[in-house]
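Figure 6 in text form: structure in, sequence out.
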């Protein structure tokens, strides 16, 4: 007897769930969103959600990432430093928007919930790092940057101060700050 695999995942249903999760996140905040509320808003059963996502954090982060990825395209101006300035500027503008402030809530929740922390690192931050890695590797291949760079460290040097200001000090993050930040980092990595 052949085992049935079940119905295939419907893209329409998936989109409804992700949209519901994202809208509830923006309306109510992470702490008050539940699988029950997502299911009700999306018009699906809780079982449907649990079939595709292991927990609330995973579906919320997927919904968030699905919405955020459209707002954060990878720039290609022909100049690695300009691409990084645009990348950091776009991310900083996103992070101070209502949608982006959700990241602060999720990071705060992740301090007490290791599964959530792992989920936001995997679904949101790792892809953002890969985007930056791509820009820097492209700069190396163009001959703009030194070949022996520790790319992960460069990413930390660029984005660490951004998150420090946004999450800790509350100091201004504007285009001037971002240009200075990226320029200072690039002084040490530009190919001479």
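Output sequence:
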């Amino acid at each position: 007897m052949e085992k049935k695999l079940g119905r295939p995942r419907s893209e329409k249903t998936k989109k409804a769930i992700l949209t519901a999760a994202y809208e509830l996140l923006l309306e109510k905040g992470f702490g008050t969103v539940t699988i029950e509320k997502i299911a009700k808003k999306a018009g699906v059963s809780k079982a449907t959600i649990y079939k595709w996502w292991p927990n609330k954090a995973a579906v919320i982060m997927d919904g968030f990432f699905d919405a955020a990825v459209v707002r954060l395209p990878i720039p290609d101006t022909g100049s690695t430093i300009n691409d990084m300035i645009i990348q950091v500027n776009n991310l900083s503008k996103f992070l101070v928007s209502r949608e982006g402030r959700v990241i602060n809530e999720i990071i705060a929740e992740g301090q007490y919930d290791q599964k959530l922390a792992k989920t936001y690192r995997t679904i949101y931050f790792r892809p953002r790092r890969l985007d930056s890695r791509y820009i820097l590797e492209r700069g190396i291949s163009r001959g703009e940057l030194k070949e022996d760079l520790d790319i992960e460290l460069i990413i930390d040097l660029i984005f660490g101060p951004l998150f420090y200001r946004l999450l800790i000090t509350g100091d201004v993050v504007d285009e001037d700050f971002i240009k200075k930040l990226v320029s200072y980092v690039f002084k040490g990595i530009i190919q001479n």
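Caption detail: The mean pLDDT is 86.
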